[in-house]
Design goal:
It contains 30 helices and 17 strands. The chain is of the alpha/beta class.
Length: 703
């Protein structure tokens, strides 16, 4: 019998831990039928199938890579059995087994499905072909934890009844404790189109890499089936969509299905990384002040006294307390909080960016290592989500909520109990509280139980009394938007502070309040602008441009960031800064800056009206943002009407938006395991949703 060797060896030689973690892809393909009049075309089609399958299951990820095993050539039923025996498929152990079966099929008179081989005689399938269910059950009845079988043969749908019947022979403990799925690619009475499967799989692969936005390292079987079906015309779906021959019953991602769109983010942060795959990117964006996601610079400058106050608050000398970072829209509250989160993170201190931060600030503005326990950006989160996010950031599993229970109550009580019993100070950073939903519940149900733990030591209290109450202890560092005090006073009485800030001060009467929009922030904005545009610009240009622009954009750091990006992307920043048209635009703030960028984006082959429609769609989306896939184009199409684009045109336009000059107007997050996009600031949301904004005016095109 010919050698059936695959690309690797399989068997007892593997160590136990490697055996348990291994993932294997078996591609059992029959490609050469000499008696077929289109034998050469069929073989080429099967080769293309194998090529895209190998590419998909070569996707890198956090788990052990798939060992890909393929027989040299299958001609007889003995060859198939030898292959299964040589690789001990029925006795295989491991984390995941994917079996891909392709070739011609025979639909027997007894409703039995056979895999036809070159040596098969269709009138004697029992003797010369292989029952497809025998191949499938060899994988299902193995010892591998997760199994996925894909049958891509003619009449594949007729294998369903056999698999369902024989599945009952698998021991109950095997059926109960494992995820076992079998998919077929065509109905019981259809022949396969040999190039259809690789075409659909290639299209799904490209969508997952670009537009689907699924962020998990693995896909669920339903997600895989849905992405595959998107390439079928409506009239084809009945016969050629993927169907379950056996449903494993689990809609969770499976290690059998690597996600081609998964991007592993290097862990620069530890504390913030608990918040999700892209949480650290949020904190880094705010802390660095970078205009674009791909920028690797550290531009945070100034705010020395404010950062010194934050660092002091986070020092061991202050085990309890509340600090409120407040200011008007765009005045840099998030940046101050993010700087504290990143610079206190032990992982970040090993990153080159930390050295850049050290070189730009004095040592007493740096919080101690490990000072922040949990950091959560609460934009558009409700009270239950905030409580859950805090527990997740603290690496705590959520307690189950009774059917008649309330999530906020249960998880807030769990948070309080953790603080009470953990034996150390817990420091929580909350950013964007003014952008959260259910603010009253967040304050009343989640933060109020922590209030007693935040109380500072009472002056005159004896040391032994303080020792007994040293823990539980909480430090809260909260960012919240508020209007600037009147010009006649540097700080308004607490009773005059509006809304949310006043509620927080009433709950935490000893809270220390720091503003980001006072007069000293003018110099901070100037330093930030100089850091953004200073490289490659002579001192005389900086001396004229920086004070001019800083004066016009103050107190908005978001305007400074966008203006700085425009200045550093032009060949002559001095001429641009001196332009009366640009200065008029700059005085309109973020509205004027966006007008100019919308006008200039035409040069990137992105029509201004299309770009604006996409930005408006991101602002209109609820939750954490809008996913790409079909959703973003559908919403944007409403704003673009009566003009319309097809799906491929929308995808091309979104790609240009995300890689071009307007990318700095967007932030991204993760919601329901999908990458979503939203405006980079709430002030921008207000502008985009303003029907009178007239954003497609010239906007300084000639400036």
């Amino acid at each position: 019998m010919q050698h059936m060797g695959g690309e690797v060896q399989q068997g007892p030689a593997l160590a136990g831990d490697v055996l348990a973690a291994q993932r294997v892809l078996l591609t059992l393909a029959v490609r050469k039928y000499d008696d077929d009049y289109e034998a050469e075309a069929f073989a080429e089609g099967v080769d293309r199938q194998l090529s895209v399958v190998r590419e998909w299951w070569s996707t890198p990820g956090p788990m052990q890579a798939f060992r890909q095993v393929t027989p040299s050539e299958l001609k007889t039923r003995e060859d198939v059995e030898d292959f299964l025996r040589a690789h001990q498929v029925r006795e295989m152990h491991g984390q995941a087994l994917v079996l891909f079966v392709t070739g011609h099929g025979i639909k027997g008179k007894s409703d039995t499905h056979f895999l036809r081989l070159p040596a098969s005689t269709e009138s004697r399938p029992l003797a010369t072909a292989v029952r497809t269910s025998d191949i499938v059950l060899a994988a299902l009845d193995s010892h591998v934890k997760n199994v996925l079988v894909i049958v891509n043969t003619c009449f594949a749908g007729s294998v369903h009844a056999e698999v369902a019947a024989l599945y009952k022979e698998i021991p109950p403990d095997r059926r109960k404790g494992r995820n076992l799925d079998v998919l077929t690619t065509c109905s019981h009475d259809k022949k396969i189109r040999v190039l259809q499967f690789p075409k659909l799989l290639e299209q799904a692969l490209q969508r997952l890499r670009r537009t689907s936005g699924i962020t998990t390292p693995h896909l669920s079987v339903p997600d895989f089936m849905a992405e595959y079906a998107r390439g079928l015309r409506d009239e084809e779906k009945h016969d050629f969509k993927l169907r379950y021959a056996l449903d494993g019953g689990d809609a969770e991602p499976t290690p059998c299905l690597p996600n081609p769109g998964y991007v592993h983010l290097r862990e620069v942060l530890g504390t913030a990384q608990q918040g999700g795959a892209l949480s650290q990117e949020y904190w880094l964006d705010r802390a660095t002040g970078r205009p674009q996601e791909h920028d690797t610079g550290w531009y945070f400058r100034g705010r020395t006294e404010l950062n010194r106050a934050v660092a002091s608050f986070l020092s061991p000398a202050v085990p309890r307390g509340v600090m409120l970072i407040t200011g008007c829209a765009g005045s840099g509250k998030s940046a101050v909080l993010a700087r504290a989160v990143t610079l206190s993170d032990p992982l970040f201190r090993d990153d080159p960016l930390y050295k850049a931060a050290q070189d730009s600030a004095s040592a007493d503005t740096f919080p101690p290592e490990g000072a922040v326990t949990a950091a959560v950006h609460v934009r558009h989160l409700n009270a239950a989500q905030v409580a859950a996010s805090l527990l997740h950031a603290l690496a705590l599993p959520l307690e189950p909520v009774p059917a008649a229970g309330d999530q906020v109550d249960v998880w807030s009580r769990q948070l309080s109990e953790h603080v009470r019993t953990c034996g150390q100070t817990v420091t929580i950073v909350l950013d964007g509280l003014d952008e959260a939903h259910e603010q009253a519940r967040i304050i009343g149900d989640t933060l109020t139980p922590l209030a007693d733990f935040c109380l500072p030591r009472v002056p005159g209290q004896r040391q032994d009394e303080y020792a007994e109450t040293a823990v539980p202890a909480v430090r809260l560092l909260i960012g919240v938007r508020s209007s600037r005090p009147s010009q006649s006073s540097t700080s308004a009485p607490s009773g005059e502070d509006p809304g949310l800030l006043r509620a927080l001060q009433q709950l935490f009467p000893t809270a220390h309040v720091e503003r980001t929009d006072n007069e000293s922030s003018k110099n901070d904005i100037a330093e930030y602008l100089e850091a953004l545009i200073g490289e490659g610009v002579d001192d005389s240009t900086l001396a004229e441009v920086v004070p001019l622009v800083a004066k016009m954009v103050w107190p908005s750091f978001i305007d400074a960031r966008l203006a700085g990006d425009q200045l550093r992307s032009t060949d002559d920043p001095l001429t641009l800064a001196r332009s009366e048209d640009w200065q008029r635009m700059l005085k309109r703030g973020i509205r004027g800056l966006l007008q100019r960028d919308l006008a200039l984006v035409e040069g990137d082959d992105l029509p201004s009206d299309v770009a604006l429609a996409l930005l408006k769609a991101s602002a209109f989306a609820k939750g954490q943002g809008v996913p790409w896939a079909d959703v973003w184009p559908a919403i944007a199409g409403v704003f673009l009407a009566p003009k319309s684009l097809d799906g491929n045109e929308w995808d091309a336009m979104i790609g240009k938006l995300l890689s071009g000059r307007l990318s700095g107007y967007l932030a991204h997050a993760v919601e329901d395991d999908r990458r979503v996009y939203r405006p980079a600031h709430e002030e921008l949301v207000e502008v985009l949703l303003d029907p009178d904004a007239r954003l497609l005016d010239n906007g300084g095109r000639d400036a």
